[in-house]
């Protein structure tokens, strides 16, 4: 059998969660489709095709149900929603109103015609989708409209249909706006790039760029692809990714992201990732993947809605068929039952959670927070403990040479000698030596080798020279005192030796991230207690803790990965813990935590194990704030949907409201929860 191909399609006409279930059920029945995933929030269907003809059959199946399947990226046709039918129904309703004023005898017929014309597309969709969902909103509106016509309520039937069609248009528009905002990041990429070639600068379409190309980015233009600055200096605005409003200074060697804006200055950038495979595309993929994974709140609401509709339908049948036996007024009770049918649809309730989750995921992507699932966003709101790795998370992860102290008489410059040894090592300390020695003359070196647990060696000018651990070398008491003093300051040390003779001590400092202290203050303001977990020495950990304002009891040093995992597991049992890390050794703890968060600059293993990716440490407080705000919007939406339904259910049973208020309650609640969710897209975090 042919290996399934995954194809992504846009589903036109899928404007509610009930539609998504109907579409998914229909596609599952198509032969040749191995697996189907449908996301109402993104409006997409992911089909795992085993047979080429399955694509055509799937399109025909959905077309029969009133939906259109089109390949991702293909432009949509026309405005969203049944706006043509809404205009036609509204026109006929106005005509019927005029007839009732000037030709009263024809008014009833005019209202009946308006109702029948307006209900036709709804009845068609209801009949086509009867097998997937016999209790769809279209079916309930159709039954209510025909019932109203039968009992002589032609005017109300016409108003019900018109209001419902207008509601569907508003719903489709608000959903389309939400989806557009969700994937608006992709629109940040420019349509063209200025590529440097042998003939000079040439303007090319974005698709023509390849890895390794060099492009010029003038002021006021957006960077066309992820890359590294080759030449030039500029201020670059990255607020779309990091949420930071102030432009960042970029110079040769710095990385820039496709879609960032050059505010001042000019850059030449070497492309490292194709524009369609860069960070922006990765964020969109993560957002889409997150929308396919339901949160706990979504599952609870789905389960409730499946029981709610049959319950209200049973109540409608009781009102129409049983109560008249005791109270009389058969037509009056049928009228109330028809209104209850309209209230039976749980559309607003079903949409209330995924709409908020989708907006939260999209807002997170714009603030440098990449949620991999709605469940992760939901769980983060309930976390009370925060565990943080040290190196590469709270610090830059790039040690810097801060001092070189000769041991004994220094008759020559020792830094070029250390650089010669460092040329053959990939260790972070060796890299720091090379960076500190930029511009100094290079000494010829050969026979580079590394001794695990000891250090790096090379032959320089015929003599054996090494950068080794001070603890592994015999030193004088004076040198040992210097070692202890520097280690107490949290410095990392290396010893430069030549033919067994110590020449100098080198002190390195891994600086705290500039945003670390402010991020920790913001986290404390949210009621979180940070705990620093590190395998580094006690002295180094305490020095960093003091610089960041961490208390003595908030630091655990000298931990192995297994011990770090055990601490996280204990915290997870005591109210939930979020673990923030960046290294391979953090992966087990990230996976075990209630929510794992990985800094995007970290290792791939950490990013895979984490539930949330952070573009920078400054995005960490935003992740917590956004998760809590999203959960608050979810609660508001559920209260709004259930409250309106409950209110009109009661007033309908009491005979205070009729058909058209019931339609307003349903469509009004649907539009309100969608708009309330959209507020998250512009929330300040």
Descriptive account of the structure:
The protein is an alpha+beta fold and 685 residues long. The chain has five domains: 5-71, Alpha-Beta Plaits; 83-182 and 286-346 and 632-682, no CATH class; 193-275, Calcium-transporting ATPase, cytoplasmic transduction domain A (Distorted Sandwich), CATH 2.70.150; 359-395 and 514-627, 3-Layer(aba) Sandwich (Rossmann fold); 400-509, 3-Layer(aba) Sandwich (Calcium-transporting ATPase, cytoplasmic domain N), CATH 3.40.1110. Helices cover 48% and strands 20% of the residues. A seven-stranded mixed beta sheet has the order 14-26-25-24-15-22-23, with helices on both faces. The chain has a six-stranded antiparallel beta sheet with strand order 6-5-7-13-8-11, with no helix packed on it. The protein has a six-stranded antiparallel beta sheet with strand order 16-21-20-19-18-17. α3 runs antiparallel to α6 and α6 runs parallel beside α23. The chain is elongated.
Give the gist of this structure.
By secondary structure, the chain is α+β, with helices and mostly antiparallel strands.
Mean pLDDT: 78
- Taken together, the total number of domains comes to 5
Q: Specify the overall morphology.
A: elongated
Give the fraction of residues assigned to helices.
Answer: 40-55%
Rg, Å, rounded = 33 Å
What's the β-strand tally? Answer: 26
Strand order of the largest sheet: 14-26-25-24-15-22-23
Strand content: 15-25%
Most strands sheet: 7 strands, mixed
Low-confidence stretches: none
User: How far do the termini sit from each other?
Assistant: 50 Å
Q: How many alpha or pi helices? A: 23
């Amino acid at each position: 059998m042919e290996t399934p191909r995954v194809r992504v399609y846009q589903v036109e006409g899928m404007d509610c969660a009930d539609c998504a279930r109907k579409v998914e059920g229909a596609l599952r029945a198509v032969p040749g489709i191995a697996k189907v995933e449908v996301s109402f929030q993104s409006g997409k269907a992911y089909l795992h095709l085993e047979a080429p003809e399955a694509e055509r059959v799937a399109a025909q199946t959905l077309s029969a149900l009133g939906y259109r399947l089109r390949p991702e990226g293909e432009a949509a046709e026309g405005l969203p929603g049944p706006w043509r039918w809404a205009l036609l129904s509204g026109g006929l309703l106005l005509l019927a109103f005029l007839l009732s004023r000037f030709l009263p005898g024809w008014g009833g017929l005019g209202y009946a015609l308006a109702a029948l014309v307006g209900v036709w597309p709804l009845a068609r969709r209801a009949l086509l989708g009867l097998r997937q969902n016999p209790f769809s909103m279209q079916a309930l509106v159709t039954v209510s409209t025909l019932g109203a016509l039968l009992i002589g309520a032609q005017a109300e039937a016409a108003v019900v249909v018109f209001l419902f069609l207008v509601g569907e248009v508003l719903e489709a528009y608000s959903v389309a706006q939400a989806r557009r905002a969700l994937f608006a990041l992709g629109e940040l990429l420019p349509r063209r790039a200025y590529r440097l070639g042998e003939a000079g600068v040439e303007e090319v379409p974005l698709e023509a760029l390849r890895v390794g190309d060099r492009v010029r980015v003038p002021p006021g233009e957006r960077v066309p692809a992820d890359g590294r600055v080759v030449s030039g200096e500029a201020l670059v605005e990255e607020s779309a990714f990091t949420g930071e409003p102030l432009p960042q200074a970029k110079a040769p060697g710095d990385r820039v992201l496709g879609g960032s804006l050059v505010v001042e200055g000019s850059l030449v950038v070497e492309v490292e990732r194709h524009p369609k495979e860069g960070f922006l595309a990765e964020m969109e993929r993560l957002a889409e993947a997150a929308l396919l994974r339901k949160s706990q709140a979504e599952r609870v609401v789905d389960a409730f809605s499946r029981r709610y509709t049959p319950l209200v339908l049973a109540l409608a049948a009781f009102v129409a068929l049983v109560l008249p036996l005791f109270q009389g007024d058969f037509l009056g009770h049928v009228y109330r039952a028809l209104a209850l049918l309209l209230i039976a649809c749980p559309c607003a309730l079903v949409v209330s959670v995924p709409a908020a989750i989708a907006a939260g995921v999209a807002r997170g992507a714009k603030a440098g927070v990449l949620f991999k699932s709605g469940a992760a966003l939901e769980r983060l709101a309930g976390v009370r403990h925060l565990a943080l790795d040290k190196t590469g998370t709270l610090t830059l992860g790039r040690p810097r040479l801060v001092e070189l102290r000769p041991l004994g008489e220094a008759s020559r410059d020792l830094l070029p000698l250390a650089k010669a040894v460092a040329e053959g090592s990939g260790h972070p300390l060796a890299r720091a030596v090379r960076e500190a020695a930029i511009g100094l003359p290079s000494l010829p070196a050969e026979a580079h080798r590394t001794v695990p647990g000891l250090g790096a060696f090379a032959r320089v000018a015929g003599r054996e020279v090494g950068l080794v651990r001070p603890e592994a070398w015999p030193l004088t008491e004076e040198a040992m005192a210097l070692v202890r003093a520097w280690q107490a300051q949290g410095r990392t040390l290396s010893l430069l030796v030549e033919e067994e003779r110590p020449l100098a001590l080198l002190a390195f400092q891994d600086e705290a991230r500039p945003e670390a202290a402010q991020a920790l203050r913001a986290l404390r303001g949210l009621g979180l207690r940070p705990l620093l977990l590190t395998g580094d020495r006690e002295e180094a950990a305490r020095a960093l803790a003091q610089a960041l304002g961490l208390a003595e009891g908030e630091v655990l040093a000298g931990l192995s990965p297994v011990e770090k995992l055990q601490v996280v597991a204990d915290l997870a049992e005591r109210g939930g813990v979020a673990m923030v890390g960046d290294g391979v050794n953090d992966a087990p703890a990230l996976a075990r935590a209630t929510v794992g968060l990985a800094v995007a600059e970290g290792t791939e293993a950490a990013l895979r194990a984490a539930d949330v990716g952070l573009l920078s440490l400054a995005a960490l407080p935003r992740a917590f704030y956004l998760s809590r705000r999203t959960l608050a919007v979810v609660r508001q939406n559920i209260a709004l949907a259930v409250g309106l339904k409950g209110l009109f259910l009661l007033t309908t049973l009491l005979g205070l409201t009729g058909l058209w208020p019931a339609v307003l309650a349903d469509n009004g609640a649907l539009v309100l929860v969608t708009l309330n969710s959209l507020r998250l897209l512009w929330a300040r975090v």
